[in-house]
Design a protein that fits this description.
Layout (H helix, E strand, L loop, with lengths): L1 H25 L5 H27 L11 E5 L6 E5 H12 L6 H20 L8 E2 L11 H7 L5 H13 L4 E5 L2 E2 L4 E2 L10 H4 L22 E7 H9 L15 E6 L5 E6 L2 E4 H8 L6 E6 L2 E7 L7 E2 H9 L4 H8 L4 E4 L4
Parallel strand pairs: 1-3, 6-13
Antiparallel strand pairs: 1-2, 4-5, 4-14, 7-12, 8-9, 9-10, 11-12
């Protein structure tokens, strides 16, 4: 009897219980829905992880300035003084001073030059209630973002502004120093191939880091050459704005003559009739783009053929762009135009 029960339970186990157990074990491995959910959840987790990683990699750590993080900007037209973050201000300066289609390394160099110039002005202020103004003839150009965007083609506005922000962001905190102090970082549009000494423009004793340097490739830019063509009377009228007693005998070649050149081959002194003027003064009175000019007299007219654009001191912007196109980085560009300098973080000074 006992054996019958054992055989009976063995029969039940083999026929019913064992198949049920085996069937239950197979269910999870054949469930497509569960597998899809698991794959989606796994990939979603991976996506989230990747997004966080990408965000962390792409996020630039904002530079914290120990000093000069904000500046006081004088708006020359309104007289309003505005406190602005330094690097926000620099985006408006770089976009106003250099074309956005220039090479990125040239724009980075411009950002560092503009930051250095700004901090130099903060340390050597010329405005009673502000660090710097937005007038390019006094300090450096500043253009609001709205005005700058309006001047660009609509299709280029977003990418241009992002490029400007990038060059400022990737150089944040960096300035040019000489003897561990910020330099007076002059710059100009086009040197005509050779930069100028500051003493020949503004007088004084000059700066050791601002020397005459050569730059190739600038002739490919529109800023390289220009011409001013005047009648004899137009020339007299312009000179009379400062010299009311001016008299010129146009039949005498000695009455209009370049007397002296600077080391960079710019006009240092020129004779106009009964007066001798500096090249800088002549440039201002006649509206020339630089002091690097030649004079031709023909058919009763006086023609001034000009090379370059600007005072010629410090970094040439077209020269910087040329160097960037040749593969030079912003440090190499800066150290070409400013002699014996170092690029340092402002907080290290």
């Amino acid at each position: 009897m006992k054996k019958i029960f054992i055989y009976f339970f063995a029969f039940l186990f083999i026929c019913f219980i064992l198949p049920a157990l085996l069937t239950k074990r197979d269910i999870p491995t054949s469930s497509g829905d569960n597998n899809i959910d698991n794959i989606e959840n796994t990939e979603s987790a991976k996506d989230t992880e990747n997004n966080i990683q990408n965000t962390q990699e792409n996020k630039e750590e904002k530079y914290t300035y120990n000093k000069y993080g904000t500046i006081k900007l004088l708006h020359s037209k309104t007289g309003e003084v505005e406190e602005v973050a330094l690097d926000d201000y620099l985006c408006n300066v770089v976009s106003g001073e250099m074309p956005a289609d220039y090479e990125l390394e040239a724009l980075k160099a411009q950002a560092i030059v503009a930051r250095t110039y700004t901090i130099y002005k903060c340390q050597n202020p010329k405005h009673n209630n502000a660090d710097i103004c937005d007038d390019s003839t006094c300090c450096q150009a500043w253009v609001s973002k709205e005005d700058r965007l309006a001047r660009w083609e609509e299709s280029k506005r977003e990418t241009n502004w992002q490029k400007i922000e990038q060059c400022v962001r990737e150089t944040q905190g960096k300035i040019i120093t000489y003897n561990n102090q910020p330099i007076n970082a002059f710059f100009h549009a086009n040197s005509g191939g050779t930069t100028e000494l500051p003493v020949n423009v503004w007088g004084g004793s000059g700066y050791p880091y601002l020397q005459v340097v050569q730059t190739a490739g600038e002739e490919g830019y529109t800023q390289y050459s220009s011409e001013v063509n005047l009648t004899q009377q137009e020339l007299i009228n312009k000179l009379k704005e400062k010299y009311s007693d001016i008299q010129i005998d146009f039949n005498n070649d000695e009455q209009i003559k370049i007397l002296e050149y600077t080391d960079s081959n710019r006009v240092k002194t020129i004779r106009f009739g009964n007066h001798e003027l500096s090249g800088v003064e002549t440039r201002t009175l006649l509206g020339l783009k630089s002091t690097n000019f030649e004079i031709k007299k023909e058919n009763g007219r006086i023609m001034f053929s000009v090379k370059g654009y600007g005072h010629g001191v410090g970094m040439s912007q077209t020269g910087a762009d040329t160097m960037a196109k040749q593969g030079n980085n912003y440090e190499e560009i800066i150290k070409h135009f400013y002699i014996g300098v170092e690029i340092k973080e402002i907080n290290s000074l």
